[in-house]
C-alpha cells in the first residue's frame, strides 16, 4: 500500500496546538495531519499530552492557541456536541460511560431515536448489530454498564463512536483493556474504517498494534512533536528512541526532516 | 436473512445468559436482583404493608374508607414537593427549599385572590410562575456561579420564608373564600363513581395495550418479549387492585379529583423520565455529568430544567396546600414539610446519590409518610411522636439506599 498524503488534502489538520494547565504546558505548538483513509498512530510516554490532544480534538478542552482545519475549512472546536456534529467521533481513554445506564442507553446517549417517544426497539436492534460487528462478548444489553468488564466497556465505548456517520475517529488507547481476540477485532475494525475512507487517529502504547495498522506514526514528547514516521519503513527501536528521547539521534532528526519535506511537496 | 425456526431472539443468544424461561425463573431472577442491591420499589411496598398492618391493629379506623379518602387528599400537597425532589435527586442535586417555596406560593395565591380580588386562575398562574422563576434563579446560580445546590437552596429556605412572611404582611393567616373553586376542588370534588371505574379499566387496558404493542414490535424485530400470559396476568392484577380501590373509596366519599391530579402528574413525569430523550439525559447527568457532557448533552440546560421543574412542582404543592386548608398561613410549608418531601422521595426508592429512581417513588413515598402521620394522629399522639417516627423512617430509608448502593457495586449493578 502506498501513502497518499500528498495527493489529497488532509481531512483533519492541526497547526500550532498549544494547551497549558496552569503552569504545565501540556501541549506546545503541536502539528498533526490525518488524511481520509489513513491511520495515524499517536505515541508518546505517559504524560506526553496524547489524551490532552484527543480531548482538544473532541471539543472537551479548548486549545489556548492553534488552528484546526477539517475537510479543508478552518473550524473552532467548541463543544463535544458541535464536534460530533462535524463528524469527529471519539473513544476516550476513560471511556466516559454512564455506569447507571444500560448498554443501549449509553450507545445512543445524546443521539436517541425519536426524542419524544424513545424508539427502544430500533435502538436495541441497532445496538446488537453494532456489537455483533465488533464481535462483542456482551450477553445482555439490559444490565447497567457497571456490570460489564473493562474490555466489554471498552467495546461499548468503541461501538458508540461508530454510531452516526463520522469522518474521523479518535481512539485513545482503544485496546488497553482488551483480550487478544478483541484486540485483533479492533485492529480489523480500524482497517475497515480506513478502507471506508475514514481518517483514524489511534493513540497507543502497544508497538505491535501501531505497526500492524498505522500508516504513519506521530511521536509526542513532553507536549511537543518529536517526529512523524512512515510506519512501513521505521523500526520499533527508532520509535522508542523518539518516544523516550534517549537517543536524540540522526534517525529521529532525519525522520522529522523527511516528514517536513513530504508536507511541503 | 431467513429466520431459523426456534432460533433464540437476537438478545438471548449468549449462552451465559440466565434467561428466565418459566415463571419460577422470573421469580428467582427477581430475588437475585434484590439480593444484589437492585431494590427498586420493593422496600416501599414492604413499608406500606407493615405500616398499614401495624396501625390497623392499633386502631380499627385506620384502614376505614373515610380515613383512606382523607389520606388521598393529604398526600397531594407534599406529594407534589416530593415529585420535584425526585427530579433534583435524579441529577444528583438537592433542593432544601421546596417547603419555603410552597409557602410563598400559598401566600401569593391567597393575597392575589383575597387582597387583590383577582380571579382564581390568575392567582394560581402567579403562584406557579413565581415557583418557575425561583427554579430558574437556582439554575443560574448553579450553572453560572457554581454555587452548590445544597448551599443555594439552604439560603433559599430562609430567604423565601422571609418572602412568605412579608407577603402575608404580618397576618397569621389569610383565609380563602370557602366557595371558591380552588377550595372546593381540594375538599369536596370527587370523581363520579362510574367514571372512577372507567378510569380503573382504562388504566389496566392501557398497561395491557402498551405491553402488547411493545411485545409485538419487539418480536417483529427479532427481539425477546414478555409472554402473553405474563402480560395478561399483570394487567388483570392491576385491574383487580384498581377496581377494588375504587370500590372501597366509593363506599364513602370516593376518589378525589385532587388525588387524580397528582396521579396524572406522576404518570406524566414517569413518561418524561423513562420515555423521552430529556429523561435519558436527566439520568445520564445524575450518573456521570462529564460523560453526559462528552456525549453532547447540554448538561447545564438539564440542570436548569430540573431546578425549574422542582420549584414549579413545589409551587403547585403550595397552591394545593392553601386550598386544602382554605387558608395561607405563616406556617404553610414550614416545620417538617421539607424533610417529609425529601424523605418521601428517598423512601420511595430514589437514590440520594443521583441517577436512580422514578416518578412513582414520590407517590409511594409520600403514602408511607402520610400514613405514619395519619396513624399517629388517630392514636392521639402529637407531633413530637410524628417527628421522631418520621425521622427514624428516613434514617432507615437512607441507610437502605447507601447499603444497596454498596451491594450493587459489589455485584456490578451500578
Ligand atoms: N485536567 C488537567 N489538569 C491539569 N493538568 C492536566 C490535566 N490533564 C492533563 N494534565 C497534564 O497534562 C500532561 C499531559 O497529560 P495527558 O494528555 O493525559 O498525557 P498522556 O499522553 O499520558 O495521555 C500531564 O503532565 C498531565 O499531568
Ligand atoms: Mg492518556
Written description of the protein model:
The complex is a heterodimer of chains A (265) and B (414). Chain A has 265 residues and is α/β, with parallel strands linked by helices. Chain A contains nine helices and ten strands. Chain A has one domain: 3-Layer(aba) Sandwich (Rossmann fold), CATH 3.40.50. In chain A, 36% of the residues lie in helices and 24% in strands. Chain A is globular, with a radius of gyration of 18 Å. Chain B is mainly alpha-helical and 414 residues long. Chain B has two domains: 39-189 and 256-410, Orthogonal Bundle (ABC transporter involved in vitamin B12 uptake, BtuC), CATH 1.10.3470; 190-255, no CATH class. Chain B has helices at 23-35, 42-58, 65-90, 98-115, 120-145, 149-167, 181-187, 193-220, 228-250, 257-275, 277-287, 289-294, 299-325, 337-347, 360-378, 383-410; strands at 173-175, 190-191, 255-256, 327-329. Chain B is globular, with a radius of gyration of 23 Å. Mean pLDDT of chain B is 92; it is low at 1-5. The A-B interface holds A 58, 60, 79-81, 84-85, 90, 92, 96-101, 105, 109-112, 115-118, 121-122, 124-125, 128, 137-148, 160 and B 10-11, 14, 16-17, 214, 217-218, 221-223, 275-278, 280-281, 283-284, 286-288, 290-298, 354-356, 408-409, 411-414. The complex binds adenosine-5'-diphosphate (ADP) and magnesium ion (MG). Adenosine-5'-diphosphate binds at residues 21, 24, 26, 44, 46-52 of chain A. The site of magnesium ion has 3 residues of chain A, from helix 1.
Amino acid at each position: 500500500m502506498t501513502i497518499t498524503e500528498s495527493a489529497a488534502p488532509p481531512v483533519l489538520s492541526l497547526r500550532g496546538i498549544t494547551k497549558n494547565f496552569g503552569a504545565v504546558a501540556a501541549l506546545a505548538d503541536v502539528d498533526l495531519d490525518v488524511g481520509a483513509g489513513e491511520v495515524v498512530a499517536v505515541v508518546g510516554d505517559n504524560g506526553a499530552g496524547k489524551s490532552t490532544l484527543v480531548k482538544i480534538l473532541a471539543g472537551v478542552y479548548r486549545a489556548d492557541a492553534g488552528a484546526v482545519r477539517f475537510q479543508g475549512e478552518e473550524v473552532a472546536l467548541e463543544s463535544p456536541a458541535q464536534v460530533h456534529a462535524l463528524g469527529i467521533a471519539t473513544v476516550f481513554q476513560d471511556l466516559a460511560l454512564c455506569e447507571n445506564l444500560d448498554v443501549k442507553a449509553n450507545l445512543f446517549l445524546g443521539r436517541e431515536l425519536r426524542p419524544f417517544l424513545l424508539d427502544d426497539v430500533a435502538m436495541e436492534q441497532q445496538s446488537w448489530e453494532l456489537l455483533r460487528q465488533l464481535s462483542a462478548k456482551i450477553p445482555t444489553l439490559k444490565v447497567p454498564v457497571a456490570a460489564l468488564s473493562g474490555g466489554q466497556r471498552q467495546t461499548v465505548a468503541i461501538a458508540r463512536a461508530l454510531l452516526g456517520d463520522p469522518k474521523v475517529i479518535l481512539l485513545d488507547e482503544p485496546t488497553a483493556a482488551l483480550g487478544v481476540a478483541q484486540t485483533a477485532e479492533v485492529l480489523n475494525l480500524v482497517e475497515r474504517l480506513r478502507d471506508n475512507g475514514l481518517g483514524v487517529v489511534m493513540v497507543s502504547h502497544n508497538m505491535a498494534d501501531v505497526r500492524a495498522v498505522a500508516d504513519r506514526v506521530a511521536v509526542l514528547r513532553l507536549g511537543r512533536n518529536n517526529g512523524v514516521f512512515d510506519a512501513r519503513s521505521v523500526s520499533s527501536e527508532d520509535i522508542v528512541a523518539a518516544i523516550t528521547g534517549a537517543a536524540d539521534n540522526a534517525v529521529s532528526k532525519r525522520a522529522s526532516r523527511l516528514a517536513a519535506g513530504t508536507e511541503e511537496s | 436473512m431467513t429466520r431459523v425456526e426456534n432460533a433464540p431472539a437476537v438478545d438471548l443468544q449468549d449462552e451465559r445468559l440466565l434467561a428466565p424461561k418459566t415463571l419460577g425463573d422470573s421469580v428467582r431472577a427477581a430475588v437475585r436482583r434484590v439480593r444484589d442491591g437492585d431494590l427498586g420499589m420493593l422496600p416501599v411496598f414492604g413499608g406500606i404493608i407493615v405500616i398499614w398492618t401495624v396501625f390497623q391493629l392499633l386502631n380499627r379506623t385506620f384502614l376505614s374508607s373515610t380515613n383512606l379518602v382523607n389520606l388521598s387528599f393529604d398526600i397531594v400537597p407534599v406529594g407534589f414537593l416530593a415529585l420535584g425532589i425526585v427530579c433534583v435527586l435524579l441529577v444528583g442535586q438537592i433542593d432544601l427549599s421546596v417547603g419555603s417555596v410552597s409557602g410563598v406560593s400559598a401566600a401569593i395565591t391567597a393575597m392575589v385572590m383575597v387582597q387583590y380580588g383577582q380571579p382564581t386562575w390568575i392567582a394560581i398562574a402567579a403562584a406557579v410562575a413565581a415557583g418557575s422563576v425561583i427554579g430558574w434563579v437556582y439554575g443560574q446560580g448553579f450553572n453560572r456561579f457554581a454555587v452548590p445546590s445544597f448551599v443555594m437552596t439552604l439560603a433559599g429556605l430562609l430567604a423565601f420564608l422571609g418572602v412568605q412572611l412579608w407577603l402575608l404582611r404580618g397576618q397569621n393567616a389569610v383565609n380563602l373564600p370557602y366557595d371558591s373553586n380552588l377550595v372546593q376542588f381540594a375538599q369536596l370534588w370527587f370523581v363520579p363513581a362510574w367514571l372512577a371505574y372507567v378510569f380503573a379499566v382504562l388504566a389496566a387496558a392501557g398497561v395491557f395495550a402498551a405491553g402488547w404493542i411493545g411485545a409485538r414490535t419487539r418480536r417483529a424485530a427479532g427481539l425477546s418479549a414478555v409472554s402473553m400470559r405474563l402480560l395478561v396476568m399483570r394487567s388483570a392484577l392491576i385491574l383487580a387492585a384498581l377496581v377494588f380501590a375504587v370500590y372501597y373509596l366509593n363506599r364513602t366519599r370516593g376518589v378525589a379529583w385532587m388525588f387524580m391530579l397528582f396521579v396524572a402528574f406522576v404518570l406524566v413525569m414517569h413518561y418524561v423520565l423513562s420515555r423521552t430523550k430529556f429523561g435519558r439525559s436527566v439520568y445520564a447527568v445524575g450518573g456521570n455529568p462529564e460523560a453526559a457532557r462528552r456525549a453532547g448533552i447540554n448538561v447545564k440546560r438539564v440542570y436548569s430544567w430540573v431546578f425549574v421543574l422542582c420549584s414549579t412542582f413545589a409551587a403547585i404543592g403550595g397552591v394545593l396546600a392553601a386550598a386544602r386548608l382554605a387558608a395561607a398561613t405563616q406556617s404553610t410549608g414550614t416545620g417538617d414539610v421539607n424533610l417529609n418531601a425529601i424523605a418521601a422521595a428517598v423512601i420511595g426508592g430514589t437514590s440520594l446519590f443521583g441517577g436512580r429512581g422514578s416518578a412513582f417513588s414520590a407517590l409511594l413515598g409520600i403514602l408511607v409518610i402520610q400514613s405514619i402521620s395519619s396513624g399517629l394522629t388517630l392514636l392521639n399522639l402529637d407531633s413530637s411522636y410524628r417527628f421522631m417516627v418520621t425521622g427514624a423512617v428516613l434514617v432507615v430509608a437512607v441507610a437502605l439506599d447507601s447499603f444497596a448502593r454498596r451491594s450493587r457495586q459489589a455485584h456490578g449493578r451500578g
